[in-house]
Amino acid sequence: MLQVPRRVPWRDERRTAFFAAQLGLMTAYAVAAMGGVIASWTLDSFLATGRAEFPAPLIIAAWQAVIGGLIYLAIAGAAYAWHSAQQAREETARAAQAEALRARAELAALRSQLNPHFLLNTLHAALGLVRRDPALAERALERLGEVLHYGLRMHRESLDQVTFAEEWAFVRSYLEIESLRLEERLQLRLEADPETLPDLVPPFVLQPLVENAILHAVAPRKAGGRVAITARRRGDHLQLEVCDDGPGMPAASPSPGAGLGLRLLRERLALLYAGNASLSLQPAEGGGVRATIELPLDREAVSESA
Questions:
Q1: By three-state DSSP, how is residue 202 classified?
Q2: 211 is in which domain, residue-wise?
């Protein structure tokens, strides 16, 4: 009976089925209790008199069924209370872990954005454009401001979710800055289905994949490389994909998620979505790496535990 809360959990959207199941279980327990009393008293009568008959009025058996039902309600109520308390403790622990991981992810993203090399390269590229193309230099500084503002806003407001439109705009600003630095060495293809823009995602869910692709597949190569970023819906999931044409995954590390950003992202997704989200890295056709994130669609909240 103590396993009933796990097998018949309470769900707001299935109240009728829940109460029907509980009524059935209570009835079964009451009938079993009444049957046990009848069987035991009949056995006692047989052993004492040699006649197999129930030596008491049937009302006694009926009252035993009522008592059995009450006993079931008491034990089931205690089991559900214990189960709810355990779930509350687990959710509190998950929320604390998610909060710690969110803070670490924010700091990792801010470190990336405030990295002296990133800032110096951006400012150097903008400085070189001041005389040659002042409008482009101004746009570069505007994009830098947008990137820094997004990171600082996430850190200041402690947001657990943003619309994908906000994350997409952030990544586009980041890529525009990298395009100024890498110039024609960075070839981009960006595709986001309009229907994905209102969907809710954790902040910094896409940027670590983009940064990883540029860092390992484009920046080290004299000829540069290509990075394709797509966002689409697949059934009841939002699919985000970052694909590059770099050297691919090293043989010694079949899952190149050892970087802090990717490691934090894996852990955050596991906590925020309770195992319903995934991050996979696989060899891309023709070389390179394909990183894919699958997030369950949820317009209300990323996770109750977050």
A1: coil
A2: 115-296
